[in-house]
């Protein structure tokens, strides 16, 4: 076969495992400068190929999408997703296709997103909360994390369950999951170590999943009970949450609601599927949107002239005598550009993880079957050949005709990925992002605290499942509306 892509030399047996601390979006971008837009690492027994420019991204996400659409999964991920019973980690194939169709039609469409009361209500609750803190320093990062957590929690489980204790317990389960997803497990690279469990991770995994089982089983049982008392059918579509929607597909040989729905006749979900999909939604929809809101605000506070331009547009389109309504969003062109520019510079998921289903060639290099393929969206969105002043926050670049959009056909701009595995929650995510930012910028003026100037604002990020700000943004709101 042709040669492997270039890459740093490795050691016998462990390969490049001594470089594990460089496998962040920034570290991999640095390596790409040395080895090129496609490079190869050997991590124990595992091949990893990293893609860092738009041309190679097009190769793997469009031209050879069918070969590059599997997902790599660590031991932790397999265990915590009930052995890939979800959509995000299912391999590409008929099961994934059905799950994806179900989620896109029933859970994530823009129409469905607009019908979740949770988005509107929680944004308004946040505005009221900020009004109460007018003139004092607000931890903006914590505020928006709580906001998106509430939105998704309510959309998933319904408002009856939004008790403080329930939510706190669920957040701590999610945090443990997050740690386990990110934990370095030797057995991922040397599978024969799985049964030895030298780091004691298997025990932690079992414990985390037990806590999740107890928590979500109770929620599923309560929903089933509600259905039973409602004559075996789902509650009103208007009141239904994600668990209700998924329970319509629960059971052997098709769903339990017989309204002639073709999708329902074709798909049957187990309890594990329902639990795993809910975890996809919680992980996919919470930190991503929260980090985008926080980065958008930080970038605008760093460049007050951009903040002013967005707020001037809000005055022009909405006026200062009322709050933003959903119908205004379409007219807020500059706000949308600022959000696109934020997602370009700070894609909430900086590294897209794919896996090859068979051996192939890219750019004349050999990529074996089951290679872990890392598409460095963070590096690609800042590619100097595709973007002028690539590291500068400049929303007006998106005003030009022919500027890239979110559809994923411009491979220099892939914050939601592209192709078969691109983000199915994009409409829901964008809706929550636009509505939150429009309200927070329209209702309040924002200043940095304690005489801090924009130059002092730290713009470092952190590497994890997402890439949020390393230091939480703190800002001082004052009301702006005459109707306040
Ligand atoms: C600003 C918000 C969001 C961003 C930037 C974002 C970004 C992404 C990206 C980059 C991927 C991986 C694409 C790939 O591997 O090629 C992805 C996948 C996914 N996202 Fe999102 N996402 C957002 C919001 C959401 C929301 C709100 C949900 C659900 C409620 C969601 C659910 C998912 C799921 C389930 C997948 C896996 C899809 C699959 O493997 O087939 N995302 N997202």
TrEMBL record:
Domain of life per record: Eukaryota
GO biological process terms held by the UniProt record: secondary metabolite biosynthetic process
GO molecular function term, any single one: iron ion binding
Pfam families given in the database record: p450
Principal location class: membrane
Annotated binding of heme, by residue: 423
Gene3D superfamilies in UniProt: Cytochrome P450 (1.10.630.10)
Subcellular location(s) of the protein: Membrane
Residues spanning the membrane: none
Membrane topology note: Single-pass membrane protein
Keywords of this entry: Heme, Iron, Membrane, Metal-binding, Monooxygenase, Oxidoreductase, Signal, Transmembrane, Transmembrane helix
Cofactor(s) annotated in UniProt: heme
GO terms for cellular component: membrane
PROSITE patterns, per database record: CYTOCHROME_P450
Iron listed as a keyword: yes
InterPro entries (UniProt xref): CYP450_84A, Cyt_P450, Cyt_P450_CS, Cyt_P450_E_grp-I, Cyt_P450_sf
Family: Belongs to the cytochrome P450 family.
Protein name: Ferulate 5-hydroxylase
Upper taxonomic lineage: Eukaryota, Viridiplantae, Streptophyta, Embryophyta, Tracheophyta
């Amino acid at each position: 076969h042709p040669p492997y892509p270039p890459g740093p030399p490795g050691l016998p047996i462990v390969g490049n495992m001594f470089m594990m601390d460089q496998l962040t979006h920034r570290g991999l971008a640095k390596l790409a400068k040395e080895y090129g837009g496609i490079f190869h690492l050997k991590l124990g027994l595992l091949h990893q190929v990293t893609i860092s420019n738009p041309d190679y991204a097009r190769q793997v996400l469009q031209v050879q999408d069918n070969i590059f659409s599997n997902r790599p999964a660590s031991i932790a991920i397999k265990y915590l997703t009930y052995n890939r019973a979800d959509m995000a980690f299912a391999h590409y194939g008929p099961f994934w296709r059905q799950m994806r169709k179900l989620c896109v039609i029933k859970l994530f469409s823009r129409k469905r997103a607009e019908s979740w009361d949770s988005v509107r209500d929680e944004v308004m609750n946040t505005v009221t909360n900020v009004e109460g803190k007018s003139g004092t320093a607000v931890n903006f990062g914590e505020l928006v994390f709580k906001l998106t957590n509430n939105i998704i929690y309510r959309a998933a489980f319904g408002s009856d369950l939004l008790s403080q204790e329930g939510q706190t317990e669920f957040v701590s389960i999610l945090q443990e999951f997050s740690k386990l997803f990110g934990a370095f497990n030797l057995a991922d690279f040397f599978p024969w170590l799985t049964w030895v469990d030298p780091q004691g991770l298997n025990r932690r995994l079992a414990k985390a999943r037990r806590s999740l089982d107890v928590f979500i089983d109770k929620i599923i049982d309560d929903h089933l009970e509600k259905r039973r008392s409602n004559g075996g059918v789902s509650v009103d579509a208007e009141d239904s949450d994600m668990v209700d929607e998924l329970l319509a597909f629960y059971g052997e040989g098709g769903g339990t609601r017989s309204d002639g729905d073709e999708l329902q006749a074709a798909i049957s979900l187990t309890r594990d599927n329902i639990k795993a999909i809910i975890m996809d939604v919680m992980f996919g929809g919470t930190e991503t949107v929260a980090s985008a809101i926080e980065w958008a605000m930080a970038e605008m506070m760093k460049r007050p002239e951009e903040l002013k331009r967005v707020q001037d547009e809000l005055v022009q389109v909405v006026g200062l005598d009322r709050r933003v309504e959903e119908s205004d969003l379409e007219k807020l062109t500059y706000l949308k550009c600022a959000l696109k520019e934020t997602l370009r510079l700070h894609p909430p998921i900086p590294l897209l993880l794919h896996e090859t289903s068979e051996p192939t060639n890219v750019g004349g290099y050999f990529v074996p079957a089951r290679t872990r393929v890392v598409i460095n969206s963070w590096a690609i969105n800042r590619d100097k050949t595709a973007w002028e002043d690539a590291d500068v926050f400049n929303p007006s670049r998106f005003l030009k005709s022919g500027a890239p959009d979110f559809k994923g056909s411009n491979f220099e701009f892939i914050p939601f990925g592209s192709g078969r595995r691109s983000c199915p929650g994009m409409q829901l995510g964008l809706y929550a992002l636009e509505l939150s930012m429009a309200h927070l910028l329209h209702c309040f003026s924002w200043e940095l605290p304690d005489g801090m100037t924009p130059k002092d604002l730290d713009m470092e990020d952190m590497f994890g499942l997402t890439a949020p700000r390393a230091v939480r943004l703190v800002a001082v709101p004052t009301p702006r509306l005459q109707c306040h």
